[in-house]
């Protein structure tokens, strides 16, 4: 599943774009990024992970207009010194990521796009993706799927899909900035809204390298994810 790597290149000027402009629909509408995880909000964990990672120089936070002031205050409270700007997102993930990339410092070489809703990302997962993108231009963490996979048609199993080459992709997805800008602008031009950013880069015919994700790097999407994240957090603290 994981290909051959070029020699490690030192990553330069890496900006994390944390997208946090979603609507938490599947959580029932309450802002999931402000739900407490341990003693602090989900988003504070996410920001702290990138603050801690030595391979990331800057952070740009993308959110809804009404959250700009509270999120700026949240970042100040939790000592996020790498935060450069908090900017307004768009109606689709692709639009939000594009807003974040455009707001990154001008000399940014690599952009690490990360879901605000993935608070348990580790330094190892971030760094491996950053180094792979420094060497290859595009990289994303993946985990092999654990279940058997079926295609369902009209409520009935229609086909079995062999899982040995299947993986679930996570974030941070890291790209050379010009490549990501080209991919997102092309997606916007075509009116394409992708669920992840690799898809926009793949659509240009560019390879995206698979790095090691983690089963703990979960995305907070539905209510039971909070209970799972709490358990994972406690395990880390033991
Ligand atoms: N227009 C959007 C949509 C999503 N996101 C961000 O992308 C990440 C992954 O999206 P998801 O988990 O789907 O978040 P929501 O869009 O909030 O969830 P839902 O689809 O249930 O409304 C989240 O951190 C979310 O805030 C964003 O910045 N802008
Ligand atoms: C980017 C992502 O987290 C990769 O798994 C995922 O595609 C986001 O999807 P969502 O539909 O916005 O939750």
UniProtKB/TrEMBL annotation:
Top-level lineage group: Bacteria
Any one GO BP annotation for this protein: isopentenyl diphosphate biosynthetic process, methylerythritol 4-phosphate pathway
Marked site: Positions MEP for the nucleophilic attack: 163, 219
Gene Ontology molecular function terms on file: 2-C-methyl-D-erythritol 4-phosphate cytidylyltransferase activity
Pfam family, one: IspD
InterPro entries for the chain: IspD, IspD/TarI, IspD/TarI_cytidylyltransf_bact, Nucleotide-diphossugar_trans
Keywords for this protein: Isoprene biosynthesis, Nucleotidyltransferase, Transferase
EC number: 2.7.7.60
Record-annotated site: Transition state stabilizer: 26, 32
CDD domains on file: CDP-ME_synthetase
Enzyme category, top tier: transferase
Catalyzed chemical reaction(s): 2-C-methyl-D-erythritol 4-phosphate + CTP + H(+) = 4-CDP-2-C-methyl-D-erythritol + diphosphate
Functional pathway: Isoprenoid biosynthesis; isopentenyl diphosphate biosynthesis via DXP pathway; isopentenyl diphosphate from 1-deoxy-D-xylulose 5-phosphate: step 2/6
Task performed by this protein: Catalyzes the formation of 4-diphosphocytidyl-2-C-methyl-D-erythritol from CTP and 2-C-methyl-D-erythritol 4-phosphate (MEP).
Family designation: Belongs to the IspD/TarI cytidylyltransferase family. IspD subfamily.
The protein's name: 2-C-methyl-D-erythritol 4-phosphate cytidylyltransferase
Annotated organism of origin: Agathobaculum faecis
Species lineage: Bacteria, Bacillati, Bacillota, Clostridia, Eubacteriales
């Amino acid at each position: 599943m994981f290909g051959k790597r070029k020699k490690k290149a030192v990553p330069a000027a890496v900006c994390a774009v944390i997208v946090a402009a979603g609507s938490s629909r599947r959580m029932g509408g309450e802002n999931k990024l402000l739900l407490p995880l341990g003693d602090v909000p989900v988003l504070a964990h996410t920001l702290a992970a990138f603050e801690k990672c030595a391979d990331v120089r800057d952070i740009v936070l993308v959110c809804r207009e009404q959250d700009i002031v509270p999120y700026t205050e949240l970042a100040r409270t939790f000592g996020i010194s790498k935060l450069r700007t908090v900017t307004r997102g768009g109606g689709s993930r692709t639009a939000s990521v594009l807003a974040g990339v455009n707001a990154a410092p001008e000399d940014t070489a690599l952009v690490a796009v990360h879901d605000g809703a993935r608070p348990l990302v580790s330094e190892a997962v971030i760094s491996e993706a950053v180094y792979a993108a420094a060497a290859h231009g595009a990289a994303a963490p993946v985990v092999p799927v654990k279940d058997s996979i079926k295609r369902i048609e009209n409520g009935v199993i229609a086909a079995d899909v062999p899982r040995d080459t299947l993986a679930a992709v996570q974030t941070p997805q890291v790209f050379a900035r010009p490549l990501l800008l080209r991919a997102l602008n092309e997606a916007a031009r075509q009116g394409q809204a992708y669920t992840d950013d690799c898809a926009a880069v793949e659509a240009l015919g560019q390879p995206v390298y698979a790095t090691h994700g983690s089963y703990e790097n979960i995305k907070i999407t539905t209510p039971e994810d909070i209970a799972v994240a709490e358990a994972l957090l406690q395990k880390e603290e033991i």
